[in-house]
Structures are given as structure tokens and as C-alpha cells.
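Worked example 2:
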Amino acid sequence: MITNSVVVDTNLVFSALIPKASQIRDIFFESNMNFYSPNILISEIYKHKDKLLKSSKLTESEFYLYFNGIIERINFIPMDFIGIESRQIAYDLCHDVDIKDTPFVALSIDFAIPLWTGDKKLKDGLRQKGFHNFYD
């Protein structure tokens, strides 16, 4: 277990990039926490960049300033470094809740650290299946 650490998911980084959600962004920039994420997070952010720009009302320069600051604080872990057993458990938990969250749950299980997400549907679905390792 890595103390003072959390796995952050894409949903949380989306929230940190929206100005009204500045408390989340402040935690990224001002806390002494260790943040981890599967490296798939970066491609997910880029895939939704236009939508994020529109909804956040950030300029492209502001977007990249915040985004770069946030990803500099995250330790990215390749999926190959996450144990097969953890990946299977995460798949079993996520496949009928939200399969796209499987890598984040797998990393949380493998590192034995909480998952930090703002995705209520994911939390509710995982809690119903016995997963309760969330950071709030």
C-alpha cells in the first residue's frame, strides 16, 4: 500500500479542468498527495478536448496550462505493470457498470490505494459489488 496516494480517473481530471470545480484543481496543485493513473487517461482527455474546451469556457492556452500542470502531478502506470489478477478482478467489477473504468479500478486494486472519482454511477455500481475503496 502506498500511503497518501490515490488513483485518479478521467472523470476527475475533467472536473479539474472546469473552472467552477477549482477545489479539485487546487488539490492537484497544492496537496502533497501522490496521484496515480493508468496512462490511458491522457488519450481520453485528448479525445474529449473540444468538448472540455467548450464546456469549460477556457481558452486553448488556459486548457493546456491547467492540463499540463495536472498531468505533471500524476504518476502514469502502463497497463502492463498492473497485475493480471487485479485486471481480472476489475473487469469482473466493471464490465456491466462501465467497462472504460476497468484500468482505473485495476490500478486501485493492484496498488491497494483508493480510487478518486466523481462518477456516481461507477461508485454506486462498484459498491453494490463490494468494492468500497474510494477517496472522498
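The mean pLDDT is 91. Residues 5-128 form a domain with the Rossmann fold fold (CATH 3.40.50.1010).
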